[in-house]
Amino acid sequence: MLSVTDLKNMKDSGEKITMVTAYDYPSAKQAEHAGIDMILVGDSLGMVVLGYESTVEVTVDDMIHHAKAVNRGAPDTLTVVDMPFMSYHISQEDSLRNAKRIFQETSAQSLKVEGASGDIPELIKRLTDAGIPVIAHLGLTPQTVNVLGGFKVQGRDEATAQKLLDDARKVADHGAAALVLECVPTELTNIITNAIDIPTIGIGAGVDCDGQVLVYHDILKYGVDRLPKFVKSYTDLNEKGTEALRNYHSDVKQETFPSADHSFFMKNKQNLPEQD
Ligand code: KIV
Ligand code: NA
């Protein structure tokens, strides 16, 4: 299994890092079999799997429940679990307790937190000092979308670009193991990636990041309707899955399923009870 220090070596050697989200046993198993470098149990779980309106409804218990299933499916893949909305904002004590629970109960190798404001850099440092590697997440941070004013590209003007670079330096200085950059202009990604010595992992942040992350359901077009511009889908399971189910439905109605191939028969018909 890769460790977070291997990620740093990959940055130094120029080998791109691949990350995909997974939320359950089968998706994790697929990611591991595909050779994906690392798995993120993202709080996007709330929207893509649980059907919530946003990620703010996701709880610590939700994350633990799903991350445990992911661990069973991909026991040999470096796994990162999102700390969900408000689980690391009330007090440092509360944040540490939640982090401890998620880390211990899921056997994940790392946690991820959004932003660099307030006590978050200090939290990154304290968790890292305690032995919990932390991945930071800047740019579009969905947990604060109500403050950011929508799902928009971040850091497009001079002031916000500078702030993003300063924040990236801050989380790196506080010991973050890697940095997810979401919806950031490619030119700014390039500057940030060169400015810090931890790997950047981009989603909607261009090709210059040290790695890329996408949501499992977006890659497979599975259960999602509209896809953001930065997503590339590699198949269409909405179509393939619905077609398969439609064919099953029709086979049953027409009695073409189950066929003899899918049925069991008596070895000796004399064993059958008599019909009255
Ligand atoms: O929850 C998630 O899926 C994420 C990725 C978009 C980075 O945080
Ligand atoms: Na997330």
From TrEMBL:
Recorded hits in Gene3D superfamilies, A to Z, give: Phosphoenolpyruvate-binding domains
User: What is the cofactor note?
Assistant: Binds 1 Mg(2+) ion per subunit.
Looking up InterPro entries in the UniProt record yields: Pantoate_hydroxy_MeTrfase, Pyrv/PenolPyrv_kinase-like_dom, Pyrv_kinase-like_dom_sf
Keywords associated with the record:
Cytoplasm, Magnesium, Metal-binding, Methyltransferase, Pantothenate biosynthesis, Transferase
Q: What class of enzyme is it?
A: transferase
Molecular function per GO: 3-methyl-2-oxobutanoate hydroxymethyltransferase activity; magnesium ion binding; methyltransferase activity
Q: Name one GO biological process term.
A: methylation
Q: What is its EC number?
A: 2.1.2.11
- Residues annotated as binding Mg(2+) are 43, 82, 114
PANTHER family in the record: 3-METHYL-2-OXOBUTANOATE HYDROXYMETHYLTRANSFERASE (PTHR20881)
Function of the protein? Catalyzes the reversible reaction in which hydroxymethyl group from 5,10-methylenetetrahydrofolate is transferred onto alpha-ketoisovalerate to form ketopantoate.
Q: What is this protein called?
A: 3-methyl-2-oxobutanoate hydroxymethyltransferase
Origin species, per record, is Lentibacillus persicus
Q: Gene encoding it?
A: panB
